[in-house]
Design goal:
Blueprint (H helix, E strand, L loop, with lengths): L4 H5 L15 E7 L39 E2 L19 H17 L7 E7 L13 H10 L4 E4 L8 H12 L3 E5 L17 E7 L17 E4 L3 E4 L7 E4 L2 H18 L5 H10 L22 H6 L1 H4 L12 E5 L7 E6 L7 E11 L5 E5 L8 E6 L7 E4 L3 E6 L7 E10 L11 E4 L3 E4 L12 E7 L5 E10 L6 E5 L8 E5 L8 E2 L4 E7 L8 E9 L2
Parallel strand pairs: 1-3, 1-4, 2-3, 4-5, 5-6, 6-7, 18-20
Antiparallel strand pairs: 8-9, 10-17, 11-16, 12-15, 12-17, 13-14, 13-16, 19-26, 20-25, 21-24, 21-26, 22-23, 22-25
Length: 541
C-alpha cells in the first residue's frame, strides 16, 4: 500500500496560494501529548501570543503559568511532550499532528506552517496506568479558554455527563468546531463526545471506500475518512515514522479539512463549516444494508468541501439529493420559490429534517413538504420560516420540498439539514427477552421473511416446578457457524450452555435439565437464513 494513499483519496488541492492578511487557524489536539521536536511538526506548533516564555508568570491571566505552546491538564504543567520513559505508550497525539501537517503542507505548500498551527493539549497523566484519556473534557475546556478554532478529540467513551455536555455547548456557542472519533468497535454504538449534536463524528474508511471492519457506525456518524494504513510521525524520535489504523486518524483528517474551510471562509460559523464538509462528501461503497443511514453523509472530499458550493453559489441545489445526509439552502436571491427532491439511496424508515439556521427577513415565507414531485404529490406538512419546529419526520423514502418566499428577492438565508432514519435491524423481528410460562410454539419472529442481521433476542421459558422442557424443531435455517440459537440452563447467559445450534439442518430434539431455559438467538451482519420454529412442552423428568 502506498504510504500516502490517504492523501490521494482526500482530493486535496495542491499549493494553494496563501494570502497574508488572514489570521492563522489553530487546531487543538486534545490527546496524550505531541513530540513537538519532530521534523514534521516543529514549525507548526502554536505559540501563545500573550504569554512570555519562562518568566513564571501567568501573563495572559488564564490561570496557566507559561503555557507558551499548550498545557498538560492532567499533570497541571506546561510539559506537552510525551514522557520520555513511555514514548511507546504516548504515541497517539504525535501521529495525529503529522496527519494535519501533511494535509496542510499539501494544500499550502511551504507556507503551511505559518497558517495552520497545532495547540497540544496533553490530557493524559505521565503516571497513568493506561492510555485512556480520563481528562479529555478538561482538555477541551482549556482549548476553549485559549481560543482554538478547531478541537480534535480522537478518543471516545460510551457516556457523557451534564457537566461535559455544558463544555461542548460552550464551544458551540463560541463557534468552535469540535471533531471527534466514532470509536473502534464494529458496532452500532454511540460514543462521546462524537455522538453529541454539536460535534462532527467521524468513522473510518478503507482504500476501497468502505467502512473498515473495526470502525463504529450509527446514526450519530457524520462523515468517513481514511482510517487504515495511515503513515505518520512516530513519538520515538525526531525523524521516526510508523503506520497506524483506526477512527482516530480519520478524525484528524476531518479536523484538518475543517481548518482549511475556516481559513478560506473566515466568516463561516461552526455549523456552516460542518455543512461544507457534509454537503460535499463523496459516495461511499455500500454493500451492507445494515449501514444505511449509519455512516454519515459520505467520504471526506477536501477539494469540494473547501469550495463549498452549497454556500458559495446561487445555483439550484443538485436534484435529486441522493445521499443519506445533506442540506437544503434556503436562499432566493432572485426567485420566489425553489424546490428539492430528497431521494436517498437504500432502505430506511423515513427522513428527518431539522432547520439549522435561518437569518434575515423571512416575512411570511414557508417551506412545504410533499410525498413526491409530481402534480398529484400528496401534501404532508409545512411550516413558516419565522417559527420553525425543532424537526419534522416524514415516513417513506422520498420527500419533495418547496420553499415559497413571500415576495421575490427577499433577503434571507438559511439551512435545513436532512438525514434518513435508519431501520433498526437488531430489533426488526424480535427484541429484548420474552418470558413464556405456557406450552406453545417458539420462532425467530421473521415469519416468511429471512431473519434480521445483528439480532440479539432471548426467550425465557419457565415450566412448573418439577417439570422439564422438551423442545422439537420443525424448521431451521441459519448461516452455519455464524448465526446461533443457544440454550442456557437457567435464566442468564452466564449459566452453563446445554446446546447451541447453527446451520441448515433441523437440530435434534432437546430436553432441558431443569424447569427453566434461556434461549438466545444471535446473528451477524451477513447471510441471513429463513429462520427457525420449534414446539415446546412441559414434561416430567
Amino acid at each position: 500500500m502506498d504510504k500516502n494513499w490517504y492523501i490521494h483519496h482526500l482530493n486535496i488541492p495542491e499549493n494553494r496560494a496563501a494570502t497574508s492578511n488572514k489570521k492563522e487557524i489553530v487546531i487543538a489536539i486534545v490527546d496524550d501529548g505531541v513530540r513537538t521536536s519532530h521534523q514534521e511538526l516543529k514549525s507548526f506548533i502554536w505559540s501563545n501570543p500573550k504569554e512570555i516564555p519562562r518568566n513564571h508568570i501567568d501573563d495572559d491571566g488564564n490561570g496557566f503559568i507559561d503555557d507558551v505552546h499548550g498545557w498538560d491538564v492532567s499533570d497541571n504543567n506546561k510539559t506537552i511532550f510525551p514522557p520520555l520513559d513511555r514514548l511507546d505508550d504516548f504515541y497517539h497525539g504525535t501521529h495525529l499532528a503529522s496527519i494535519i501537517t501533511r494535509i496542510a503542507g499539501t494544500y499550502f505548500g511551504d507556507s503551511a506552517s505559518s497558517i495552520i498551527k497545532i495547540m497540544p493539549v496533553k490530557s493524559l497523566s505521565d503516571e497513568a496506568n493506561n492510555t485512556s484519556l480520563k481528562d479529555g473534557y478538561k482538555g477541551i475546556k482549556y482549548a476553549i479558554q485559549t481560543g482554538a478554532d478547531i478541537i480534535l478529540c480522537s478518543w471516545s467513551v460510551a457516556h457523557i455527563s451534564r457537566a461535559e455536555i455544558e463544555i461542548l455547548e460552550e464551544a458551540n456557542r463560541k463557534g468552535i468546531v469540535i471533531v471527534a472519533s466514532a470509536g473502534n468497535f464494529p458496532q452500532d454504538r454511540k460514543q462521546y463526545p462524537a455522538a453529541h449534536s454539536t460535534v462532527i463524528a467521524v468513522a473510518a474508511s478503507s482504500p476501497q471506500k468502505e467502512k473498515i471492519k473495526k470502525s463504529n457506525y450509527g446514526q450519530f456518524v457524520d462523515l468517513l475518512a481514511p482510517g487504515i494504513g495511515i503513515h505518520g510521525a512516530s513519538s520515538l524520535s525526531e525523524k521516526g515514522y510508523e503506520v497506524r489504523e483506526g477512527t482516530s486518524f480519520s478524525t484528524a483528517m476531518v479536523a484538518a479539512a475543517a481548518a482549511l474551510i475556516k481559513w478560506e471562509h473566515p466568516s463561516y460559523s461552526n455549523k456552516q463549516v460542518e455543512a461544507c464538509l457534509k454537503s460535499s462528501a463523496a459516495a461511499l461503497k455500500m454493500t451492507n444494508p445494515l449501514y444505511t443511514g449509519k455512516l454519515g453523509a459520505g467520504l471526506l472530499n477536501i477539494k469540494e468541501a473547501v469550495k463549498c458550493d452549497l454556500l458559495t453559489t446561487d445555483a439550484q441545489n443538485q436534484n435529486p439529493l441522493e445521499y443519506p445526509q445533506g442540506y437544503l439552502r434556503l436562499y432566493l436571491p432572485s426567485e420566489k420559490s425553489r424546490s428539492w427532491l430528497i431521494k436517498p439511496q437504500g432502505q430506511f424508515k423515513g427522513i428527518r429534517l431539522k432547520p439549522v439556521a435561518v437569518s434575515g427577513d423571512v416575512g411570511n415565507s414557508v417551506i412545504k413538504f410533499y410525498s413526491n414531485d409530481s402534480s398529484n404529490g400528496k401534501f404532508i406538512e409545512s411550516y413558516p420560516l419565522s417559527n420553525p419546529p425543532e424537526s419534522i419526520y416524514i415516513p417513506g423514502t422520498q420527500v419533495y420540498a418547496v420553499l415559497e418566499a413571500e415576495t421575490s428577492g427577499m433577503n434571507f438565508d438559511g439551512l435545513v439539514e436532512y438525514e434518513v432514519e435508519p431501520i433498526d435491524y437488531r430489533n426488526l423481528y424480535c427484541k429484548g427477552t420474552r418470558k413464556l410460562s405456557a406450552e406453545g410454539v417458539l420462532e425467530d419472529g421473521s415469519g416468511s421473511e429471512h431473519y434480521s442481521m445483528e439480532s440479539s433476542c432471548k426467550w425465557l421459558i419457565t415450566a412448573p416446578k418439577g417439570k422439564v422442557i422438551h423442545i422439537k424443531f420443525s424448521e431451521f435455517d441459519t448461516e452455519a457457524l455464524m448465526d446461533w440459537v443457544y440454550f442456557f440452563n437457567g435464566d442468564k447467559t452466564n449459566e452453563k450452555i446445554m446446546a447451541g445450534f447453527s446451520g441448515p439442518k433441523i437440530p435434534p430434539e432437546l430436553t432441558t435439565w431443569r424447569n427453566q431455559v434461556l434461549i438466545w438467538f444471535v446473528t451477524n451482519g451477513q447471510n441471513q437464513g429463513k429462520g427457525w420454529k420449534a414446539e415446546y412442552s412441559f414434561q416430567n423428568p
